[in-house]
# Entry
Amino acid sequence: MTHELLGGSRGAEPPGGRLLERARSGDKRSVARLISMIENDEPGAAAVMRTVYPETGKAAIVGVTGPPGGGKSTLVARLGASYREQGARVAVVAVDPSSPFTGGALLGDRIRMRDGFLDDGLFIRSMASRGHSGGLARATLRVVNLLDALGTGVILVETVGVGQEEVEVVRVADTVCLVTVPGLGDDIQALKAGVLEIADVLVVNKSDRPGADETVRDLATMLSLGKGRLEFTPPIVRTSAQSGEGIAELVAAIAKHREWAARSGERERRRLAAARGEIEALLREELVRRLRGRVGADRVDDIVKRVAARSLDPYTAIDELLSTR
Amino acid sequence: MKRPIRVVMAKAGLDGHDRGVKVVARALRDAGMEVIYTGVHQTPEQVVETALQEDADAIGVSLLSGAHNYIFPRISELMTEKGLDDVLLFGGGIIPEDDIATLRSHGVERIFQPGASLEDIVAYIREAVARKRGAGHAKG
Ligand SMILES: Nc1nc2c(ncn2[C@@H]2O[C@H](COP(=O)(O)OP(=O)(O)O)[C@@H](O)[C@H]2O)c(=O)[nH]1
Ligand SMILES: [Mg+2]
# Structure
């Protein structure tokens, strides 16, 4: 790949500036490059984020989470098509897990989205989680912010969909759709642990299959037993992403939540939490980076070895690292 | 700064047999690459647009149906049109020896016949992407 950016500091021009200019004029390849820069923490990524940040906060960001195979990608394709019909420019960010052993990833969400591949107003990006837990990649919010700043109207974020602790999407999305399917049986109880609480809209997908009524009833019962997180009760929407049935209702439910969030102050609360989360994440990254730079990787490795060998405890290790000058 | 190799894997043509391409996709994943798999019946337009949006280092197209003399040159043409000359294009499938040279002249560096060793494919992509990235760097 060409990396006019890697050299970076030619003259006063900030690295990434030219790419950003081209991305702003609608060049998709430049958008794709910028996303990689941000994902890889390439030189110039921070400068790009600094430039675009004031222009973020305009897009409608919809998260889609839920167990694997539930139809998230198929649903995202349908939602995307529906927002495109409304005239919005749409982006999809679909996260899949990276192997903790090899770092590799098989990103297969596009298989369900092929009808949109050649739509000029739709941008799809597959993203590997790269070791980040919580259902997203470390860079997902930054990439969403970039797409937002570039004038994307609706951004659909599909989470990894393997764990129960995939709650980070709430930091990125204005509205979170939790996708379930009929026939989960008692497994639906497992959703209670954290995931149900982040849902703004509950989707019973694959409603073309038997058992949808029961699932809707179970979910309604669980909601009524819940603490009642807020004054907003998540609607339960039945869809068949395969046939397209229920998609209009889902789009309406998302819009309704969005209106409520803007009216009730929920949006501001979420934005505060998101800003706090992002600042803390960046602080951690930056502090660790600086510490490594000051202490040296060898010294860190040495301390790690001593902790592993029990000749040093982790608390003293931290003191030692922080007091190194 | 770590930059994983990103590969778009697609099955083009009329037949829907994707077992081979999936085996290769998994092998590339196991070798630490990020593989974007797009499924069967992909048109050249879809393949190239996907590679562009995904900022891929390489495109691998599997093909059994005999349309290779159209599909590969067309992909190559579109890649040039969209400025993806620094992206690697390789193929897989049953392709007559005579056509391989022609395809090479159309920018398909390597065609792996069925039964090619997965190690060879992985090693080739690593080497070729490093070469392409290096060239891109020098150019920029
Ligand atoms: N019967 C039925 N199948 C569906 C529906 N939505 C998705 N599927 C199928 O479910 C499988 C998994 O879908 P996918 O979107 O990849 O799920 P994800 O893993 O949650 O992203 C695919 O084979 C889809 O075709 C639906 O509404 N009804
Ligand atoms: Mg999916």
In short: The mean pLDDT of chain B is 91. Residues A 72-73, 109, 158 surround magnesium ion (ligand 2) (CB under 6 Å).
